Input
Amino acid sequence: MPITDENAALNAIAALDALTTEQLDALHAINAIINIGEPFVDICELFGYYDKLYFRNPLVPRVEAIWSPRLTLCAGICDLSKYPSTDKFTRVRLKLSTPSLQYRPRSDTTNTLLHKAIHAYFFITISCKHSRNDDRTGHVAGSQPLADTINNHGNYEVTIYHSFHDEVDSYRTHVSLCDGPCKTQPLFFGQVKRSMNPAPGKTDAWWARHESECGGTYT
Output
């Protein structure tokens, strides 16, 4: 029988009942890294220790953690990638946003990294089912209990939903304005803000609806 997300969460939680020597070593290494006072941490190294401490080592062989200077619309993402030989999603890449996190407290980096590590854990343990739950976000039922346990254990503040609105909006410097009826309607009043400058068009998921309900032209 395939493992469920609840069972995967319970397996990780149970591993914290009595820490092994490897977990204790990882805990000491984590504390040394996050208390050095440098503006950026080596998230690849830190992720490896989090894997040992909280997930029992399944992640590092298949998950890469990197800083991304081009990621501006969120604090981090968890990407699935395929091996060409198998055409299956078998690897995960965690990207943390350099622009969104570089001026925020160290805790925001560690909380974001752990948030994405939880995603990666479920991708590895319950496969692509993790990305197909009811809200399509990958926040399966086991996510909250696991996040709560990690928070209580390490005094973190990992949340299921998080967004750095001010930072995200500051990078949306390319603005398109519609001249149709939607320019008088909330929530966006005809504006599309982006961090890069492609004009709104057919590649946007909402474009067909805009054409039928508004029909205006973006400038």
Remarks:
- Helices lie at 5-14, 21-34, 43-55, 98-101, 106-126, 143-154, 165-170, 207-213.
- The longest helix spans residues 106-126.
- The CA atoms of residues 177 and 191 lie 5 Å apart.
- The radius of gyration is 20 Å.
